[in-house]
Amino acid sequence: MDELRQIHARLHSSGFAGDKFLTSEMLRFCALSPGGDLSYASTLLLSAADTMLSSWNHVIRGYSQSDFPREATLVFLHMRRRGLRPNEFTFPFVLKACAKIMCLHLGRQVHADTLKNGVHPVVYVQNALMNLYGSCRRMDEVRRLFDGMSLRTVVSWNTVLSACADNALPEESIDIFGQMRSCGFEPDQTTYAILLSAAADLGCLSFGRWLHGQLIGSKLVLNVQLGTALVDMYAKCGAVRYASRVFERMALKNVWTWSAMILGLAQHGYASQAIELFHQMENGLVEPNYVTYLAVLCACSHAGLVNEGYRFFHEMVEEHRIDPTMAHYSAMVDVLGRKGCLHEAYHFIRSMPLEPDAVVWRTLLSACQLHVAKDVTGIGKDVKRILLELEPKRSGNYVMASNLYSEEGSWEEAAKVRRVMREEGLKKVPGESCIEVGGRICRFISGDESCINFEDICQILDGLRLNMKIPYSNLYGF
């Protein structure tokens, strides 16, 4: 940048400062080069008397890819006020910025602008629009755009697959993948990474394994993104040994890979191995991030390691300068609560620099329910009151409060809570479970008798229940 500033000064002294092409090239370097300076680019652009459209596109693109995407939208608005007409290279990055900041209102205005300027049919403009609506959780708009596309690329398919995955629609993403293959499109690395995420969300190990096999057969390079997605999928599907194998065979790993493996171990009862792997990561000079520490705190919670939890939390803040999020505070409350340190957990919440949200209080209430005998100071009652004030319409809070009263033997209080639920029209969310059978995910919802083979399932369950009641010695004749 020092050299560029000298060049800029020389252009001024030699009378070439108004050259639009030279200005555009300087802006391209400032906005898009790793050694550039977006702030300098913005100042240079806005102070220039006459500029090319490409100059604005460079700065908008630079900001849309940075940590300050809102600035891209402001530069775009400056451009429109000056009367410049955006082209098909402008809109994708403006829409990307809108998606990053989840600004649906502005995104819709930009969408209208694409129609007015005749660039709406351009495939990468439509891809950017689908990304915008997917980020803003408007899947109806995503499908409408996708279904109306006259031309699609692999990026188009990946965009709609990603929107489904990000909006908790993993089954729909698998259906769309089938359509993609039927239309003759070959999946790329991004496609596989998205689908592995969908398999992980579903807990569908057979589909995840099938994807892994397809990936091997495709001869695609197993990059860090794909390797991390495989580790995450196997870990979330409970196949921790397979996750570990993939992890060990990866030549390159980043912080996300390590974090996925640490979390997988922590969530499946391998707390000591998770912490040991975290130390290996530190010894390998990989800088942990906020997700890594969430994984480590999860390990401490499952293993009841209170002192270690405090140490890791302090290390995250003091040594790595990572600002704790609400999730970190909730994880630390879980570490204390699971161990029965209710009073300590309560004071930890009260000392938080942030205003604790309902999740933090719910974590403590769950711990109070687990350790009723240790709640001698009535922390549970205080937490119930706070939680019901924060979320008066959430039925789950009332159910937890009622269960806690029942655990204490306060049947009248439990009945009162149930009565309040009825009066407020709140209903308990029915329990749900799922199981993978023959590569299909079968869902079961409490009270729902409409599932296929319902009567046969009930007969099998009755038989299992009967067998569980028979003494072991009678069952085997001992």
UniProtKB/TrEMBL annotation:
Q: Which GO terms describe its biological process?
A: RNA modification
Q: Where are the PPR repeats?
A: 52-86, 153-187, 254-288, 289-319
Which keywords appear in this protein's UniProt record, sorted alphabetically?
Answer: Repeat
Q: Does the keyword Lyase apply?
A: no
List, alphabetically, the Pfam families matched.
E_motif (PF20431), PPR (PF01535), PPR_2 (PF13041)
Name a GO molecular-function annotation. Answer: mRNA binding
PROSITE patterns per the UniProt record, alphabetical: PPR
> Is Ubl conjugation one of the keywords UniProt gives this record?
no
- Enumerate the InterPro entries for this protein: E_motif (IPR046848), PPR_At4g14850-like_plant (IPR046960), PPR_rpt (IPR002885), TPR-like_helical_dom_sf (IPR011990)
**Family per similarity comment:** Belongs to the PPR family. PCMP-H subfamily.
**NCBIfam families given in the database record:** PPR (TIGR00756)
Write the protein's name: Pentacotripeptide-repeat region of PRORP domain-containing protein
Organism, as annotated:
Musa balbisiana (Banana)
